[in-house]
Design goal:
about 300 residues; alpha/beta; Rossmann fold; nine-stranded mixed β-sheet; 11 strands; about 15% strand; binds NADP nicotinamide-adenine-dinucleotide phosphate
């Protein structure tokens, strides 16, 4: 059970923020189902604002619903507008507040637009959950690429969140105490810097595993940078083989429920005891795959990510 009394104490005056109009032709749309139509004013709520990437489905949806129920304004994100609207509606139907941003994290243009939209439309961000992700795939021999030609799992699971997190840092710092949690996995593969895009010997499980280790490496790096800022960052493995689309769509047999995965994620977000820069295997602080502890490998990855995402 999540103890909602452990949610960070955020003394946020009710805010009224403008949510941008959805307009035809835009890749990113945001709207308020609370007000019932686009281009409306929404009350962003009591405790603060939380962005949960990939909250149209699975674990992210559950985390969004729970944070919404705890009084946060939720920025729901994903690609599927119908499912996204349904999540917003559900939060609103429980007296919550939410808006939706549609953006494909397999396109850096859309990632940039997502970050820009959050910076433009919100004057605080208290919680960022880097959750959106794609698994190893039904056929692990099929290699896919992002719009920019990067290996797709590396791009969606890691590069997009690298850019998003760094770009939203000023807002998170202003909103401190603030929390960043990246949803990672026990599946962690070391990165071969000579073959990051896995153009040789492609394997979907390895692609997934290196993207998940990269998230942990970002966590350790950023925790050092954010020391003393009131912004903490951690990475959490939720549960093994939850009953989500990621597992079910490739014919996998679930071992755990979505609730079981959401519990540790919420614990790390809400615990006043959570330090920064750690990998939690469910609720247990655990050592990550050893490459994550190699400062030189982290520097190499960080420089690569900066170059590939065009982050200044
Ligand atoms: N399932 C497990 O057992 C398990 C275990 C360990 C870790 N995890 C991690 O938990 C997180 C959530 O996974 P899940 O099992 O809940 O998967 P899921 O049910 O498939 O949900 C994935 C979410 O990510 C979004 N997403 C996927 N690709 C995207 C893209 N290109 N652009 C934008 N959004 C995208 C999806 O939104 P749309 O469908 O709207 O695009 C959806 O909301 C992932 O990071 C995963 O690696 C899962």
């Amino acid at each position: 059970m999540i103890r909602l009394d452990l949610l960070p104490r955020l003394t946020v005056a009710p805010l009224r923020r403008r949510v941008a109009a959805a307009s035809a032709g835009l890749l990113i749309v945001a709207f308020s189902l609370m007000a019932g139509h686009a281009d409306a004013q929404v009350d962003t709520g009591m405790r603060g604002v939380a962005l949960v990437t990939g909250s149209t489905d699975g674990l992210g949806r559950e985390v969004a619903l729970r944070l919404g129920g705890a009084g946060y304004h939720i920025i729901v994100h994903g690609r599927n507008e119908e499912r996204g609207r349904a999540v917003v509606e559900e939060i609103v139907s429980h007296e919550g507040s939410a808006s939706l941003i549609i953006a494909d994290l397999g396109s850096m243009a859309q990632v940039r637009a997502l970050a820009a939209q959050v910076l433009r439309d919100y004057d605080r961000l208290d919680i960022l959950v880097n959750n959106a992700g794609i698994g190893r795939g039904a056929d692990t021999s099929i290699r896919s690429e992002s719009e920019e030609g990067y290996e797709l799992r590396f791009a969606v699971n890691y590069l997009s969140h690298f850019y998003l997190t760094h770009t939203l840092l000023p807002l998170l710092r202003e909103s401190a105490p603030a929390r960043i949690v990246s949803v990672t996995s026990t599946a962690q593969n070391p990165i071969d810097f000579e073959n990051v895009m896995l153009e040789r010997e492609y394997d979907g499980a390895r692609a997934y595993g290196q993207s998940k280790l990269a998230q942990i490496m970002m966590t350790i790096d950023l925790a050092q940078e954010l020391e003393g800022s009131g912004v903490t960052i951690n990475a959490v493995h939720p549960a093994v083989y939850m009953a989500t689309s990621m597992v079910l769509n490739r014919g996998g047999t679930p071992f755990t429920t979505i609730d079981e995965g959401a519990d540790p994620v919420l614990q790390v977000i809400t615990s006043p005891l959570a330090e920064s820069g750690h990998y939690y295997r469910q609720a247990q602080r655990s050592p990550p795959q050893e490459q994550a502890l190699d400062a030189q490998a982290r520097r190499q990855l960080r420089e690569l990510a900066r170059r590939l995402t065009g982050l200044n």
